[in-house]
Structures are given as structure tokens and as C-alpha cells.
Amino acid sequence: MNSVHRGLVTLLFAAVVTSGERVSAQADQPVDDWEPASTNQPGSDFPKVNSEGRVMFRIKAPLAKSVSCSFRDGGEFKQDEEGVWTGYTRPLDEGFHYYTINIDGAEVPDPGSKYFFGAMRWGSGVEVPAHDQDSYAVERVPHGQLREVLFYSDSTKATRRAFVYTPPEYEEHPEKRYPVLYLQHGWGENEYGWGAQGHANLIMDNLIAEGKANPFIIVMTYGMTNEVRFGGLSRFSIEPFETVLVDELVPYIDATFRSLTDQPNRAMAGLSMGGMETRLITLRNLDKFSHIGLFSGGSISIDDVENTEGFQASVKLVFVSYGGRELDRGGARRGGDPGKDVEALQQAGVNAVFYASPDTAHEWQSWRRSLREFAPLLFRHQDAPRE
Amino acid sequence: MNSVHRGLVTLLFAAVVTSGERVSAQADQPVDDWEPASTNQPGSDFPKVNSEGRVMFRIKAPLAKSVSCSFRDGGEFKQDEEGVWTGYTRPLDEGFHYYTINIDGAEVPDPGSKYFFGAMRWGSGVEVPAHDQDSYAVERVPHGQLREVLFYSDSTKATRRAFVYTPPEYEEHPEKRYPVLYLQHGWGENEYGWGAQGHANLIMDNLIAEGKANPFIIVMTYGMTNEVRFGGLSRFSIEPFETVLVDELVPYIDATFRSLTDQPNRAMAGLSMGGMETRLITLRNLDKFSHIGLFSGGSISIDDVENTEGFQASVKLVFVSYGGRELDRGGARRGGDPGKDVEALQQAGVNAVFYASPDTAHEWQSWRRSLREFAPLLFRHQDAPRE
């Protein structure tokens, strides 16, 4: 394991236990402009979010001795006369955060929120409105489809699920073929993440409507094929997932969808562990992938380029991104400096791009923005797609 | 409101508060062959189900005074020395049941289960294995796609979600067009229900693989357009949803998918409230719908036939079904006898079919079976679809 890989593993461990608290001075009294979170269950007033990015929880538990939430400094919950507990956090970063509620020692989902898959379970999440939330809002633009597909995997002897985003025009051009991006979630997440938390489909719909991205297909599947357990990433082996993705899913997609099947028209990207997977799989399969995106998931060094035969001729784009707070806190630099890695690639003539998401950490807001910045750079070599 | 309608409203009220307990003698000691439920979160051992159909819950809540579940006669939960609470139900009917856990007065989802939308919220569900579960199992057969689509509704000034099932062969025959079934969920449920709880896609995949059903498209959208609140069904008005479905969704589907757009190739069905919606919408739009399915959601009487112009010439199939326990308990007969209604239709020359699901109540197992029985009867008038 090289230093980049080792640094990344350290980072991934750290990521799971941090949440998105802003490191900022906090007012004594929260601003009283609370609104129900957009991630709430239909009709649920709580949790609420205010303009500072604080989240207020309310749980009815008349007989409980204690109620709390998993946000660090989540505030002390207080019970009123009717047995309703209320508490609020300090200001959180913009974007999406996972959390749990604790009632008398029981870790449970908040009945007020919708549920998302993270940390290896379906549980609560809350959205703190971001200044750039329009980029993943449901707008009045043509919408693509997010398709649940089932494919048989001989290597795992199982029928596996993937989600496939097809761009808005896909149904209108029955003869046209499209490039494909394989897009991976992080550790403890699953194939639902990029749609449910990441809004990948809405980000693409909006970019395409604005003429900023070429339409392409996105494929999202479960990347924990090797049954990685928390703490086990240092023993990570890519082969089981590589087999599912490269030998089974890619042929299924190319047989089922109107995909362009040549190397220049196939990309892979991923966040956190999914970035690590992307790096390992693309470097071993440069005959199949031409565009590489690593979101909070390591970088590609000049050593990688020099040690990988045909890299310069094969790779059309290397995109590396991090949340700005990851860089501030130094975690992203433990295995080398990803920004400096990108500069070295650029100097060596590689089409490499570095992006830092302002004021966000190892969380979905960084990755939504990463996709928004990455997608317009993809498949620009052919603005008139071939058949 | 006629008597059928009034009886149905009574039934729908009753349905929400009953659950699927078997009315049977119960052994003193449960059979010790517990297995994790198929509806569990990945890696969760609890809840477990045994061969009697009992469900055992386990919740860690060290400081709690009381823990219970929402199943009637759910058993008294007992706490062990490590603060883990365990309880089990009496034998439940085969199939899927919604439930909640109560911890010191807080109604919360079970952290061990996946979450499903019912009773107006995402919450826990548990699957009791059924003797006919192969009909909705993931088999090694060609699979269709379950597509999330977004369409703009001018009448509600909102972008709305639907799920669209396309049959396995849909991508292989780019020139072929398919009939469409509009399929509705029940009160308090949403457009996810027929996929997540109903396994409509898997039921169709399996029927098609066995040659028992013609391939067709299924469209599932949210049917609570009129903001029906519990207790408000007697003031139910069909117009808002009828507008969304007939004037907005049908044109969207016909513009986006390779659907057959003539009346003989369009069906509608629904469960419970969705059956009521189906009855009202189809009888008012017989120029658009030819096949009608009512699952635990009322029936069509001979009076309906006589009072609806063109019924005999337009309607190719009336399918009425109930859970056997609904019939046993008399609830389904309050507004008339649905089986007798079907007999009267048959005598009048209508192609009408009645089905009773053995030993199940107003629950998803009845509706999965209803779809399994209904689908093979659809669109048989044209085994060589027209363009």
C-alpha cells in the first residue's frame, strides 16, 4: 500500500465519525426563523432548521429519562410538561447530514425525518439549506429517469441492483447512443445514495437544461462487494468489486442500454471509498475507462502516471476534489497533497482538474458540488456522438 | 354516495386500524425456529420470524421503563440485565405488516427493519414468509425496470413523481408498443408502495417468464392528490386526482413511453382507496379505460353497469378481489356482496372475475396475489399488439 493509499484509509476512518459542525463562534440564542427541514416526512414539522444552520429536534417521549441526538454538541434536550423533548444543535455546515436519536439508551431513527442509507443502515438525515441548492432543486426542466435495474452476477451468485440515470432526451432519440459514467457511493452507503442524498439525477437534469453538460448515462451500484467492515479498509481488496463492475455490470449495461461502448465514452468516479475503488479499477482497466473522478477519495500522483503503462495516451481527464474543510483540517493531505498531485499531472500534460468545495467537510454537499463541477468536463471530445 | 360507496368508506376506516393477526389458537411456547425477517436492515438479526408466523423484536434501551410494539397482543417486552428488551407477537398472517415500536411513550421505527410508507409515514414493516412467496421472489429470469419519472402537473402546480415498470423485453424491441396499467396504492400509502411492499415488478417479471401474462407497462403515482385525511374519506372528491391522472399523467406517459394509446390497451386498478379511485375514474372515463381492477376496494354493481352509458361495449374486464378474512369478517359486504355483484355482472354478459385471497386480511399479501391473478387476464384481446 503506497502512501496515498495509506493516507486515504486514515481519512476514510476519520470521515465516518465526523459530522458537519461548523467551526465557528456561536450566538447564545438561536435565530428564531425555524422551518421544517426538506428531508422531513410529509406533514412533519420537526426537525426544523434555522438560518444559522442549526437543527431543532422534537420527540414525544413522556416516560423517557433522557433524549439526545448524535450531533456532537447537539444540545441538551429538555422535556416539557406534556412529555415532549426539544433540543437543537450548534450551526451545521450547509448540506445533508446523517444522524440518530437516542431515547433512554436506544439508538433509533427520528420519526420526523425520511430515511437514507449511511453508516451501514437506513436512518435519519437532515438537510441544511445551501446557498447553491438550486443546482439540485426540482426545476421545471426536462427530467431524466432514474431506473432500478436487476442484473445477475455470476461471481457473487446473486441478482444485484443498480440505478441507471438516463438523460431527458434518451426516449426521444431511439437511435442515439450515449457515454456512460459509473458513479460510486462511499463506505457504509449503498446504490441509493447518489440518487436519494446526492440528487445526481437533478444535478444532471439542471446542467443539461443549462447546456453545461453533454447528456450521458450514469450507473450506480453497490460497491461493498467485498464485505468491507468498519476498520477493515486497510485489508481492502478491489478484485471482487472489480469483477462485478467490469466483467458483469458493464456488459449488462452495454447490452441493455443505448450506451457508447468504447473506452473514450466510459468514465468512472466515486466518493470517499468509492474514489478509492475508482482509482484502483481505472488504473487497472485503462482500456475501458478514459475519465476518472475522485471525490474526497485520494488522488492520482505523478508516480501513478509513470507506473501505469499507457496512462498518458488513455486518460482524457483526471478530476480530484475535496471538501474545503477536509483540506483545512489536513486530513486530505496525510497521504500527500491532492492539489499538488493535480498540479504535477498538469505539468506532465495530463488534463487534470482540482476542485475544493467551499466550507464543507467529508459530506454530501462536497460530493454534489463535485459532480456538478465534474459532469461538464466529461466526454467533451465528441460533441457529436458517434453511433 | 350510494350504498357500495358508503360501505367501502366504512371498510377503509376499519382497514387502517386492523393488522394481520391470525384468529387462531395459540401455543403456550413459540416454536424455536426464528430467522431474521427478509425486511430487515442489512446485517440486522432482529426482528425475527418463526414458522408459526410470530415476530420477535429486540431493542436495546438500557434506561427505558417500557418497550412495546404496535401489534395487538404484541406480547409483553421483557428487559435483560444488559438493557435489551425482547418481545414477540402471536402468529400473524402470511405477508407484509406495518408496525411501530414504542419506547417510553415515543412511537419510533424499529432500527432493525427497513422502512416503508404506510399510515402517512415512512416506518417499519415485517415480512412473514408466505407459502406462495416464490411468486414475488427475485428469480433468475429477465427483469424489467422500475423507473422513477418526474412529470409536471399544471393542475397542482407541482412536479410529481411516478414509478413506471417496463417489461424485460422493452429495451430489446425499440419499435414495439405496449398496453398500460395504471395501478394505485391505498390510503396513507404512496407511489413507492406497489414496488417496495407489493413487488409488482417481480410479480410481473415472474408471470412474463412463465408465459402467463402479456408484457405491459405499469404506472404508479401518488393518489392522495386531494389531501384526504384520516376520517375524511366520506368527503372524498375524485376530481383533483382524476385531473392529474387522466389529463396530465396519461398524456405524459403516452408522450414518453412506447405505449399503446387506445382505450382497449389502457387499464386501471388499485387497492383499498386506490380501488375506490379506480372505480370512480374508470366509470367516468370509459373512452380511455377498458380493464378495471378493484383490490379490497369495493365492487361494480349491476346498477353501475345500467347507469353508465356504453359500459357493456367499453369494458373488457372487471376484476374484483378481497382478502379472505375481509369476507369472513363481513367488512367487505357492508355495502353489498362483492362476489354477488360479480355474479350479476357475469349473468349480464360482462367479463367479470372475483378472487378471494386465502387466509389474508386487508393487507399487502391480498394485493400481491390480486395483481398475480389480475395481470394474466389483461389485454388478452390482442396477443399480437398493434402499432
UniProtKB/TrEMBL annotation, chains A, B:
InterPro entries on file: AB_hydrolase_fold, Esterase-like, Ig-like_fold, Ig_E-set, Mycobacterial_A85_antigen
Cross-referenced SUPFAM superfamilies: alpha/beta-Hydrolases, E set domains
GO BP of this protein: xylan catabolic process
UniProt keyword annotations, A-Z: Carbohydrate metabolism, Glycosidase, Hydrolase, Polysaccharide degradation, Xylan degradation
One Pfam match: Esterase
Keyword Ribosomal protein: no
Residues passing through the membrane, by range: none
UniProt region (Disordered), positions on chain: 24-47
GO molecular function: acyltransferase activity, transferring groups other than amino-acyl groups; hydrolase activity, acting on glycosyl bonds
Keyword Cell inner membrane: no
The name this protein goes by in its record: Endo-1,4-beta-xylanase/feruloyl esterase
